[in-house]
Amino acid sequence: MLFLGMANAYIMRTNMSVAIVAMVNHTALPIDPEAVDTECGPVDANATESASQQDGEFVWSSTLQGYILSSFFYGYVITQIPFGILSKRFGARLFLGVGMLINSVFGLLVPVAASAGYQWLILVRFIQGLGEGPIVPCSHAMLAKWIPPNERSRMGAAVYAGAQFGTVVSMPLSGLLSAYGFAGGWPSIFYVFGLIGTVWSLAFLFLVHEDPEKCPSIKDHEKKYILNALWGAAGSSSPPIPWGKILLSMPFWAILVAHVGQNYGYETLMTELPTFMRQVLHFSIKDNGFVSALPYLCMWLFSMFISVVADWMLSSGRFNHTQVRKIINSIGEYGPAVGLFVAANTGCNPAATVAILAIGVGLNGGIYSGFKVNHLDISPRFAGILMAFTNCLANLMGLLAPIVAGYIIEGRPTQTQWRKVFYIAGGVYLFCATFYNIFGSGRRQDWDNPDDDAANAQKVADKKAAKAQKRATQNQAETQQ
User: Which residues form the Major facilitator superfamily (MFS) profile domain (predicted)?
Assistant: First the structure.
């Protein structure tokens, strides 16, 4: 269910990227004639005619399209940290299910909002983002309660690979619905996926339980195995969050920086790849979805393969958690960086560009067995909180990606301008992956040691008692005066 939930979340996130190609009247947009790319010779008249037949009803500039695409992420980042903290206190299941229900219901309203004006569309996408906020921190919190340490690579990858599965389903199906769907084509994208998301949300709320102890159908020996493997409860009864120690922890900062770099590069590709396929490689809307989805299909398949390799490396005893996370994460972030640099220079060869992007983004699947499950290694009891923080800040960086791309290609959709977009994303990948390799760790941190719970609880109790005593003394003094 978490896998399908992650798939639904990314379907809701990516379907606008394909739909906006069909929604916008590209012919009516002003293009600087001096900046038209002539590296590949004159534009094919048939291709131009075909492109004009695909034009939609909305005259939105590249910059405005960037704001529309990023509006979802503004809502998404706002709810990350609050839901991470609330899920720690009240449990993750309810927040995740209800949040995705809000996301799905408002997805059904996108066509109406677009017709009413781009301001309403931005508002609806913002609310969708608010609803999707709990998906990652709450999924991480539930993984911490259900998954033993030596199974985290493949189980974490299995859940988070739902993101790629959702992208693989969303992009080609959205392309087909744009071309052949009901209600005028592109609106059917939001009706179909909104309905699917609503059904999943209701099923999740009725079928899924918070942890093994609350699940009535789990076998006793399996429950005992999971609880013994976790060493210290990951539930809401665990001790107060050690905020100061977390903020001073370099392994936490290594995960944060790696997450920031991943999100910037990933969001650049996910939100802008369909536009690049149309403007530079001249794919039709129908083909656009299939071609744009190919890199994510490779990423999904590779993430499944590399997660098994990561857990084998751990169980073999030849590598520790720190070594495994850094090796696999290097594949996951250096790979797409190189792919972006190469794809930016493939010129007028669509097949080579798509192949390079497919390989580079495919290797990106290593991040799920790299930094993405690293929160669970360094602090299983506070993994949801840590993921809420890193995912929030990473998405703040990620929401800049479509805006930056929009400014760079505004009125100049040429290979030269797109090359800048790819170079920036590749450079961010390189820096952040290197930072992670220097400061990352797979060892459970001292500030999440269950053996220290009694002493820490006593310290907290002593502080509260001292404050209470001080207040009582002050009140007594005031009364005497």
Answer: 1-444
Of 436, 443, 444, 251, nearest to 332 (Cα)?
A: 436
| Cα dist from 319 to 100, 149, 263, 327, 347, whole Å | 38, 14, 28, 10, 42
Residue-wise pLDDT tens digits, 106-141: 989 988 988 888 889 889 989 988 888 888 888 888
In the chain, DSSP finds a helix count (H) and a strand count (E) of: 22, 0
Buried/exposed code over 80-91 (b: 16+ C-beta within 10 A; e: otherwise): bbebbbbbbeeb
Look at the pTM and tell me if it is higher than 0.70: yes
CA 230 to the chain's CA centroid: 26
In one-letter notation, the amino acid at residue 155 is M
Q: Which DSSP category does 283 fall into?
A: -
Q: Given this model, what pLDDT does residue 278 score?
A: 67
Of the candidates 153, 196, 149, 156, the one whose C-alpha atom is nearest the C-alpha of residue 173 is: 196
**Domain boundaries, given as residue ranges, for the chain:** 2-26+54-469
DSSP string, 92-143: SHHHHHHHHHHHHHHHTTHHHHHHH-HHHHHHHHHHHHHHHTTHHHHHHHHH
Backbone Cα Rg of the chain:
24
Query: How many C-alpha atoms does 296 have within 13 Å on its Cβ side?
Result: 29
- What is the dihedral sign for C-alpha 152, 158, 162, 165? positive
How many whole angstroms separate alpha carbon 135 and alpha carbon 355?
31
**What's the CA gap between 479 and 481, in Å, rounded?**
5
Residues 6+ apart with CB under 8 A from 344: 418, 419, 422, 423, 426
Angle between helices 2-23 and 118-132 in degrees, nearest 10:
170
**Apex CA 167: angle with CA 196 and CA 192, to 5°?**
25
Is 1.25.40.10 the CATH number for 2-26+54-469? no
